[in-house]
Amino acid sequence: MTRLSESAVIRSWTRADIDYVSESVNREGWGYTRLDVERCWKLEPNGCFIAEFKSKPIGHVFSICYGRTGWIGLLIVNPERRGQGIGSVLMQTAIDHLQRAGAETVRLDAAEKAVPLYKRLGFIEEFYSLRFRGQLQQKESPQREREFSFPMRQDDLVDVAGFDAKHFGANRLPVLRSLYRDYPKWCFVAREKHCIVGYVMARRIQNGFWIGPWVCLNAETAQYLVGALTEAFKGEDVELRVGLPAPNTKGRMILEKLGFQLTSRSIHMVLGNRKNEGNVTHIYGIGGPEKG
Question: How far is 124 from 47, CA to CA, in rounded Å?
Answer without folding.
Answer: 22
